Amino acid sequence: MAEESKPVNDNNIIFERRKFVRIDGTFVISYSDVTGQEPKIDLSQTKNISVGGILFTTGKQYDPGATLKIKLRLPDAPDYLSAKVRVISCKEKLKGILYDTRVKFTGIREEDKDAINKIIEYNAKGKNTG
User: Fold this and answer.
1) Quick check: is 6 in a domain?
2) In CATH, what number is assigned to the domain containing residue 48?
3) Contact criterion met (CB below 8 Å) for 49 and 119
4) For residue 9, is it within any domain?
5) β partners of residue 94
6) 43 within some domain
7) Interior CA angle at 81 toward 90 and 96, to 5°?
8) Strand intervals (E) in the chain
């Protein structure tokens, strides 16, 4: 049976609503709330990534629409990816301690998009072999 969150047509084919290919990937990420008086920088790990955004764990629940600043190190990238993101959703995973936070890039440099695309392409090639 198809998941309720994904649209299904008459032939029971599931369509993905996302605009971008998203891959599972664990990368170290730092983040801070840019609206705070003294932005505290926290460290975490990503769960998945796309050119459009990231899913990662946070130690605080953020309201949808909140703006965060992130810094992420990607394999083979010459520098950190640094960008502002907007919180799309924040789902509690461990009561009062851990949250899955889904964010969308509000501005990303072309070289950072290219670095993410390289990771996605590499991952796709690895899954299509053998």
Assistant:
1) no
2) 2.40.10.220
3) yes
4) no
5) 98
6) yes
7) 25
8) 23-24, 28-33, 42-49, 53-58, 67-72, 81-94, 98-107
User: Does any domain span residue 78?
Assistant: yes
What pLDDT is attached to residue 100? 97
| Predicted model pTM | 0.77
Tell me the HSE value of 95 on the side-chain side, using a 13 A CA sphere.
0
Here the tokens at position 125 are 């090639």
- Using pLDDT thresholds of 50, 70 and 90, give the confidence band for residue 127: low
Q: Give the bridge partners for 105, in sequence order.
A: 85
Range of the domain at 111: 23-124
Tell me the C-alpha distance between 9 and 15, whole Å.
Answer: 8
Render pLDDT for 12-60 as a digit per residue (tens, 0 to 9).
443 345 567 778 889 999 999 987 666 789 999 999 999 999 999 999 9
Q: What is the pLDDT of residue 129?
A: 45
**Residue 58 phi/psi, 5° resolution?**
-130, 160
Question: For residue 112, is pLDDT > 60?
Answer: yes
